[in-house]
Amino acid sequence: MAMTDQAGKPLLVLASSSPRRRDLLARLGIVPDRIASPDIDETPLKGELPRAYARRLAVEKARAVDRAPGEIVIAGDTSVALGRRVLPPADTVELQREMLRAISGRRQMCISSVCVIDTAGRERVKQVETLVIFKNLTDQEIEAYIASGEGLGKAGGYAIQGRAEALIRRLSGSHSGVIGLPLYETRALLRAASYPLD
């Protein structure tokens, strides 16, 4: 039996526990009917390049959650690449400090992938690349940012929706994509999956 709400609209499953992705969907007027946290190994494969890595994770996250007949699943992944290197989430203060020093004054690419699985099980994926350049960060600026606590656990060691935005000299691409879900592409994918949007 197909899963729909009382108005006959297909149910949307967000394959993410990220509050940022819920907030971004809310900007489209969408409240997920269900949230499921995908359990996957996010370790890059040997020799895997950043674009392929971000795409693979978005698809694997979408596939990892149970989808009832008639449900639509959406998943995303945002990775930070410094050249050919994927910067991991800053799980420790030491790693965060190392990454902030590495990206100081340098070009980095935020790669945001979105995967939508429609009611028929068809997968659609879009990927957006956003150029981000931080100012040359002083040791004092790095330590003050670390002390704020907002970048811990984030890819690249920062969260653009917070204090880090004041340290970014240039951004070219999708601001929402750097946060965690590129809204233009997300809206296009959901429309292609016949999810009704205003």
Automatic annotation (TrEMBL):
Q: Per the record's keyword annotation, is Transcription regulation included, yes or no?
A: no
What is the active site of this protein? Answer: D77 (proton acceptor)
Principal location: cytoplasm
Which cofactors does it use? a divalent metal cation
Q: Which CDD domains match?
A: Maf (cd00555)
List localization entries: Cytoplasm
Keywords, ordered alphabetically: Cytoplasm, Hydrolase, Nucleotide metabolism
Q: Which reaction does it catalyse?
A: dTTP + H2O = dTMP + diphosphate + H(+); UTP + H2O = UMP + diphosphate + H(+)
Nucleotidyltransferase in keyword set: no
Instruction: Output the Pfam families linked to this UniProt entry.
Output: Maf
State the source organism's domain of life: Bacteria
Locate the site labelled Important for substrate specificity. Answer: R20, T78, Q161
Q: EC number(s) in its UniProt entry?
A: 3.6.1.9
* Homology family: Belongs to the Maf family. YhdE subfamily.
Function field: Nucleoside triphosphate pyrophosphatase that hydrolyzes dTTP and UTP. May have a dual role in cell division arrest and in preventing the incorporation of modified nucleotides into cellular nucleic acids.
PANTHER family assigned? BIFUNCTIONAL DTTP/UTP PYROPHOSPHATASE/METHYLTRANSFERASE PROTEIN-RELATED (PTHR43213), BIFUNCTIONAL DTTP_UTP PYROPHOSPHATASE_METHYLTRANSFERASE PROTEIN-RELATED (PTHR43213:SF5)
Q: What is this protein called?
A: dTTP/UTP pyrophosphatase
Organism, scientific name: Novosphingobium humi
Question: Source taxonomy lineage?
Answer: Bacteria, Pseudomonadati, Pseudomonadota, Alphaproteobacteria, Sphingomonadales
